[in-house]
Amino acid sequence: MAVAKAVSIAHIERELAMVEPWAARHGWSILWDPDRLLLVVLMRSTIDGERYIFEFDLDDYRELPPSIELVDPQTGGRGTRRSYPGGGRSYFHGNLVICAPWNRKAYHAHGGPHSDWVMSNWATYRQNHGRVGDMLVLLQELINDRTTYTGRMER
Amino acid sequence: MIEINIQSPRGSYNFTFEKTTKVSEVVEAARQKFGFEPGGFVLRRQTPDEVLIPERPLVSYHIQSGETLLLVPEMGSGV
After folding, report:
1. pLDDT category, B79, cuts 50, 70, 90?
2. Considering its fold, how many domains does chain A have in total?
3. Residues in B 9-68 with any Cβ partner in A closer than 8 A
4. Sequence-distant (≥ 6) Cβ neighbours of residue B60 within 8 angstroms
5. What pLDDT does A1 receive?
6. What is the rounded CA–CA span in Å between residue A46 and residue A51?
7. Which domain holds residue A84?
């Protein structure tokens, strides 16, 4: 691990504290496990009430972006079509990855489609989505977005 | 003057503005306060759920002192 665990924890806890009022207002359930550097957030679409669980693996944060996976709230299945929302302005890819520079899984080296991005520059590509709270708020916005959200990718 | 609480992904803060302040000026003040880079933002009211139009002044929305507004960076798109 390139980043000391304590350093990652300090970043994450500072960023989580910033988004706390937002989380309370939107009824997120947040489970933060500093020992495992794992953040799990459950949020609900205001359109259809569907629940989505976003799991952020944050080892080496902020040198590397989070590795984000979705978990089916009913079966616990990870990275399945049932766990992903549909639509989402092309963030929610049919190949089951959140396609954004702030997701480690979007990079080719981690099985994603992007060989054109440099992972160490991840926070500079979209600076207003460069903190954990920014990402979570964006994800909530995407599942609330009436123009593109299509419900669960597979029912 | 009107006091507004603005919540963003990077914190929450109570601002005081003239009632005639344009929404775009409110967005800019909040953007700087919360340390966002320049870019597209939406300022939203939750009840009723509406996006405030940048060119309009706060007074035109009959916003009450103490009300909370939400500042959201533009979603952009996946790539």
Report:
1. confident
2. 1
3. 9-12, 36-37, 39, 46, 68
4. none
5. 56
6. 10
7. 5-143
- Least Cα distance to A32 among A50, A45, A19, A47 occurs for A19
pTM for the whole structure = 0.95
Which chain B residues contact residue A18 at CB under 8 A? 9-11
Residue to mutate among B5, B7, B36, B37, with most A CBs inside 10 A, is B7
- CATH for B2-73 is 3.10.20.90
Enter the ipTM: 0.91
A52 falls within a domain = yes
CA distance A105 to chain B (A): 13
What confidence tens digit (pLDDT) does each residue in A119-130 have? 999 999 999 999
Partner residue opposite B73 with nearest CB, options A99, A134, A142:
A134
Q: Please report where in the chains the tokens 């009430």 appear, as a residue.
A: A49
